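Lab notebook page, bench 4
Experiment: in silico fold of construct C2
Operator: M.H.
Input chain length: 498 residues
Purpose: comparison with the prior construct
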Amino acid sequence: MKDKVVLIYPPYAGPPLGAPLCLLSLASPLLEAGFRVALLDGAIHPNLPSAVARELDEALCLGVSVLTGPMIGSAIRISQMVRRIRPDLPILFGGWHPSLLPDQTLTPDFVDVVVRGQGELTLVELAQRLRDGRSWEGLRGTSIKVDGKTIHNPERPVENINNLPTPAFDRVDFDGYERTRGLRELGYATSVGCPYACNYCTDQVFYKRRFNAYRAERVVREVVELVTRNRLTDVAFLDSNFPVDVKRALAIARGFLESQVKFRWTVQASTDLICRMSDEEVCLLGKSGLHHMGFGTESASQDVLALMNKKHQRVNDMFETARKAEQAGIRVTFNLILGYPGETEADRVETFRIMSDVARQHANVSFSPNIFTPYPGIPIWPQLRQMGVREPQSLEQWESLPLGKNVLPWLRGGELERLHRMLEFFLLNNHIRKATYAVPWLRNSVRRALGAPLRWRMRRSFFSFPCELWLARATERLVTRRSLLTGQALSHSMQEVC
């Protein structure tokens, strides 16, 4: 009797933050239910199709986890290969993209089932039905094909994640990820979901604004044990918004500190939540090993923040968050979204001006700018369609929509070139600031001399004859995009932003 489930995570751009937590979370209940599980991650399997082919003989099904963008292409090619080798093998797609667009995902003949939303319990039940030869009809949390027609089975109730087993971290090849990444790092989620309702974010669509979190004591116990057993130096917490429950976040930090196990950790957060903490509490985070926080600040224009439905985001909180974090020895990265529907050049100038002021006052701040990307399912799609944005109409078409790709009709030609130039000056000014902070005697006179022309350009919105940029391009590359989770550079190409 076949009892092996093959789970794959197709390769994607950028370094991996350890093993894909989605696969480990799916594998654990399958293993508890008596199934064998093969976990294959394209990040450490340079020839993923061959690795998948070797696992097919005794496979019960193939599960593919997919995010919107280039990862879809690899998923399609591997699934088509599997269909040729094992025409009888059920192929399941799950993850963010299939859950948001189950109809489109089920259309190709190489996809048999979409597992929607929280998949741990759904996949166990599906595997049991496949093993026993039972029908998929009525299986909660799935979309299936029956006689060529798509059927969306009822939603599965969301399970409290404290009731789910620990992800299968014992199946991780930490040495393999260290060879690829250069760090002994773990990706770990203490929670899923975010209570905010930002109009551009898929999180509220996927998790419906529910915050579903591990208890603090479980986080401390599991993370300390994993760090100790696997000699880890870094843990990247993958939570959408780690400190939603401020008391819980502080309890976790306190537990790490009391364990006396040394490691670095990173989170994503909202500035309003950090501002609810005292200076002493933020310093506690730093003392416990937190060394970087990423923030979806997106804009410093209150008009644009209102369009984004970011009622919780205030400009003053950006300054205060930077101050608190700097005092605690924590680096921060502020994400910027440019080209949002309704944003004007005046809004962009205001954003660059205020963000430059934040960075001038606080040396721990970096930025990661992106062009607004209309991901599937976000609440403003009706408005985007009216504004001329063409929504991809198939699974294959979504492959060509990586983060930051410009598909906005209102951002073309001279408008795009002007934004491009403004952004380069903003990043160059920040780069000079960082370079001179590292050399104390340069901080005043030289920094003023180098930065004055750039600040003048930003104030006057004058970007012609960019001699400073010509010099910068001839000498070194500007960091144009950073990981919001770790703050590490992801790109030096302005074309990947604009």
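Observations: Residues 468-476 have pLDDT under 50 and may be disordered. The longest strand covers residues 290-298.
Next step: discuss at group meeting.
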